[in-house]
Write a structure and sequence with these properties.
Elements (H helix, E strand, L loop, with lengths): L1 E16 L3 H15 L1 H10 L1 E3 L2 E6 L2 E3 L3 E3 L2 E3 L2 E14 L6 H8 L3 E5 L4 E11 L9 E5 L6 E5 L5 E5 L8 H20 L10 E4 L1 H6 L5 E5 L5 E5 L3 E4 L2 H10 L12 E5 L2
Antiparallel strand pairs: 1-7, 1-9, 2-3, 4-7, 5-7, 6-7, 8-9, 10-16, 10-17, 11-12, 13-16, 14-15
Helix pairs in contact: 1-2, 1-3, 4-6
């Protein structure tokens, strides 16, 4: 596993809107391509194939939301930002660490918004240790978790529907999809069939739900007018430590390479 904390500074104070996910994803892909075109082509064209279907590919990396400072907040976003930090995490083995370091070290990248463009210079790349994986474990979202399914439309077609854990009619589906998603990523990375029979469960921290009055859903505007609904709350996950590990390394849920499902955590005490 390679897990990095990346710090960068802006050449001038800038404004970052609330919905920056797509621009950040684009910047990371641009960094990857400029540093290692072979790795970028692999991610874009192939990725890690699921054993059951060559049509399903995983990038097997994720990244956190931005940590910004200093800043002034208003309902549209963050102004006067000079420094940002993100966590980048991948299931790639440690012998690939030099490649990942090379992607970010001493590099510059641009966040391009419709209103402005900000150039950032990477100043520090720090390697982070991983915890010992066990069950259950408590995790904290560094970016929200999203899961979806297809549902029928009145006209006879189908559409993507983002599942809500707090909807009683969707809770079991949310947990089942999360479990199956981890299994598929495990199989894609290890290139072997998953055969363990651990009981799997996922539960947001009840105290946090009370504190937030159940308001833990995020609606993130992504590219092409797509609104992604996601869950952001500390949670307790129970199950096979190997599945918990793959979730920690490359993200829980879907759209990990777009910056969803990045977590941190450790033992449940």
């Amino acid at each position: 596993m390679v897990r990095l904390r990346i710090s960068a500074i802006s050449r001038k104070p800038g404004f970052i809107p609330v919905n920056y996910q797509y621009q950040l994803q684009s910047a990371i892909y641009d960094l990857i391509r400029r540093s290692s075109e072979k790795y970028a082509d692999f991610l874009h064209e192939e990725g890690y194939s699921n054993l059951e279907s060559t049509l399903k590919h995983f990038k097997l990396f994720t990244f956190s939301r931005l940590s910004v400072r200093p800043y002034h907040w208003n309902r549209n976003g963050f102004s006067d930002v000079r420094q940002i930090e993100i966590i980048f995490s991948t299931a790639l083995p440690a012998n690939y660490e030099h490649i990942i370091y090379g992607i970010f070290s001493k590099m510059s990248f641009r966040l391009q918004f419709s209103e402005n463009s900000l150039t950032w210079d990477v100043r520090e790349v720090q390697s982070l240790p991983e915890p010992e994986f066990s069950s259950p474990m408590k995790m904290r979202c560094l970016s929200p978790i999203t899961l979806s399914s297809r549902r029928d439309k009145p006209d006879g077609g189908s559409e993507i529907h983002f599942l809500e854990y707090l909807n009683p009619d969707e809770k079991e589906k949310f947990i089942a999809n999360l479990h199956q998603n981890l299994i598929r990523k495990y199989e894609a990375f290890n290139q072997k069939t998953y055969s363990n029979n651990y009981t799997f469960d996922f539960c947001p921290d009840p105290d946090y739900l009370i504190k937030k009055a159940g308001k833990v859903s995020k609606l993130i505007r992504f590219k092409n007018g797509v609104n992604v609904k996601a869950l952001e709350a500390p949670f307790i996950v129970t199950g096979d430590p190997e599945l918990i590990k793959i979730g920690y390394q490359c993200g829980f849920g879907e759209k990990n390479s777009a910056g969803f499902g990045c977590v941190e955590g450790g033992w449940l005490k």
